[in-house]
Design a protein that fits this description.
The chain is an all-alpha fold. Helices cover about 70% and strands about 0% of the residues.
Length: about 140
């Protein structure tokens, strides 16, 4: 005998669950991974291609990204460039921290609600602090 179809969703959706730190961190892990894959990989491949292309190619890359000695302003000194580079740095640290968190969860630890929420918040705090420290070290004149 066939059962009647109900209008209930087959799986829970975001509207049903109450947002918590673990949910936010899990979604951020996917977003930062995609951001690193698309934006970060493009910049990395351009850098490696510039190294492989020889001295002139690498100087063009450095002029565009860092020094701004060409006909364009430096990517690093432009507001959009700073936002992209800081965002990529934060995405790297956030993705790394949540990757370690997922590794700990994969071994069976940290599933208690309090511990899971605490480690989720700590990954967010770590990523912001690590990004700030990284850029402080890069930008402090020596």
């Amino acid at each position: 005998m066939a059962q009647a179809r109900s209008n209930r969703p087959i799986s829970p959706h975001l509207q049903i669950w109450r947002w918590g730190p673990a949910m936010l961190v899990s979604i951020l892990h996917r977003i930062t991974g995609n951001g690193l894959a698309f934006a970060g990989l493009g910049l990395l491949l351009w850098w490696v291609g510039a190294i492989a292309g020889g001295e002139q190619s690498y100087q063009t890359f450095v002029a565009f990204v860092w020094t701004g000695t060409g006909p364009w302003p430096s990517f690093v000194t432009a507001i959009l460039g700073k936002a992209v580079l800081i965002g990529l740095t934060w995405a790297f640290f956030q993705h790394m921290a949540t990757g370690v968190r997922h590794l700990v969860l994969d071994i069976g630890a940290g599933y208690e609600l309090q511990a899971n929420a605490r480690w989720s918040v700590l990954t967010l705090v770590f990523s912001v602090v690590a990004t700030a420290l990284f850029w402080a070290l890069v930008l402090i004149p020596r």
